[in-house]
Amino acid sequence: MAFAIGVDVGGTFTDVVLRDSCGAVSVAKCLSTHYDPIAGIVTGVTRVLAGRDPAQVTRVVHATTLATNAVLERTGARVAYVTTEGFRDVVPLGRYARVEEDRYDLRFTPPPPPVAPEDCFEVTERVSARGEVLTPLDDGSVRRVAAEIARRGIGSAAVCLLHSYANPAHERRVAEILRASVPAVVTSSEVWPEIREYERATTTIMSAYIGPLMASYLSQLRERLAALGVRAPVHVMESGGGVISAELAARRAVATIESGPAAGVLAAAGAGFAEAISFDMGGTTAKACVVRGGRPEITHEFHVGGKGSFGGRRAGTGVPIKTPAIDLAEVGAGGGSVAWLDAAGALRVGPRSAGSSPGPACYGLGGAEPTVTDANLVLGYLSSASIPLRPGPAAEALDRLAGPLGVSREAAAYAVHEIVSAAMASAVHVVTVQRGIDPRGFALVAFGGAGPMHAARVAGRFGIATVVVPAHCGVASAAGLLAGELSTDRVRSRLEAGDPEPVFAELTAEAAADLGVSPGDPAVRVERSVDVRFRGQSHDLTVAWSPSREVLADRFAERYRQVYGIAQRGEIEPVGYRVRVTVTNGTTAPAPRSTAAEGPATPGPRSPVPPPAGAGGRRAAYFAERGGYVEVPVHTRATMPDLLPGPAIIEDAESTIVVPPSWTAALVRRSGAVHLTAGGPA
């Protein structure tokens, strides 16, 4: 018997899923250990193994927020930035756009640059945009820079020379000299050789910033798994939804910045709906993404480290990163989000989270502030979780809000529930309405420890009539890791390339080498795409490659219409070439079974089946539509009938589904998914 393990480390919980070669699944959910994230992983892996032979584990796939946290908390390595003479101020000057809430702030202070101005260095050289050497590289200038970097004790360097995407020879020589005295050196031509000097520089800097931390972390993870007897290869989910080796993740650490959220979207894409909205609510954040044609939307530039990542493409929300990433909107709203009163006495929820330590008040681990989880417990939506919950401390925490507000405890709790639902709806708004997409024809796929409790409320705000809660929804991100295929991306900007076949061939060979496979292997799939723009424009759009200029123009025109909402024609020019190499030889877990093929969620026109006697209990839960607390049936997936009208509650081991009035829950037994449909009995 062979086993694969998926590990997702979140802000509050660490989720571990083990799947055997027959498809049987075991799960573990334990509190994250922020002082040592690997300790929580070891605890979870030990639980899911539970007497199984660890030597039979053939693969470990990991999603981690390590890189994201390092950027947000500024705990990465000190970086020296090395560039062409005359361009050292590109990074300190930056390209900052103010988000709406900052535009009229007279005391606005821009964020600090990713590298301090005094740690930016210049070397003598110059290459043109078409790769011609205009000024030869002066090795002496590089050695002087290397000596100064070493004298300052800087252990990581980012090299980004002007137009090195067109000719990387100078960058490679600079890196060769620097490596004699600097422990870690990253070049832009290795990380992401694209046009736009500032974005290419920040991408390289971020990789140098988090690379040493990622390399150390993954090395320790392998060692501690080996101590358990697990010696299988460790793979890491990258931001674009592919899976890469731990060694490649250490070298291209910037590709893992959105590692954690990407895994959950893959799970949502496997729910069987071609048009879906992924809705992931954990303990710290909530994330939304659009899935179209069964595939998540991908962006080639996103921002990290700003005040809020409300849609990764939104300028002004951090440092720009040029690498493929699943296109998410994220808000600081989760089960652990703290409810508080601002200076004007208005109720706010988040973005600060109680996390796993001290956690919500109901965890009984020392937390005393009211959180979303405490509110949901007071409302009767929760009775148990992965750890025991204590109603007394939760009630006391909510009373501290209710008193100043002059309302009852229940009213305060319901207000917290509604406010956090509205905040999460804002994330869905960003990836749909704000981008010209009508969400009403989509299914909302809800997962995460807290997502199914709020999903119907969020869907109702947009007129979405179908909510899908997959099996093992509380650990869906960890399960989604096992559906990821071994893959990686490569890109290169080439202006007036002529015949692009040599460029594609070179990129394919590099990507295949990263994965340790041959491009000609039957198990290897190669996808080609190209960045195209109207001649004379500055920005481009990515479309699938075709050697036919007419087909390429048609694809670009259609993509242009989707993005900008207008039909436009004109002369086009390719400016960049991309490949994605994927290994499809069965080294990954099979894709999740499609629930859409199993027929409608509501099995025929039958009347709702009442809960069988003794199949589930009942308890009081708060529903404003019913005027307060009402007795509702409480089921598990195993005890619920085929149709369960709301209000009702369905409890899983890792999460709880709340079925509001006017909604009906249906169990799809083959997949274990629960479908909620609007318009049931009021």
UniProtKB/TrEMBL annotation:
Residues 200-488 form the Hydantoinase A/oxoprolinase domain. Pfam families: Hydant_A_C, Hydant_A_N, Hydantoinase_A. PANTHER family: 5-OXOPROLINASE RELATED (PTHR11365), HYPOTHETICAL 5-OXOPROLINASE (EUROFUNG)-RELATED (PTHR11365:SF23). This is Hydantoinase/oxoprolinase family protein. It comes from Actinomadura luzonensis. The lineage of its organism: Bacteria, Bacillati, Actinomycetota, Actinomycetes, Streptosporangiales. Residues 586-618 are annotated as: Disordered. Residues 5-180 form the Hydantoinase/oxoprolinase N-terminal domain. Signal peptide: none annotated.
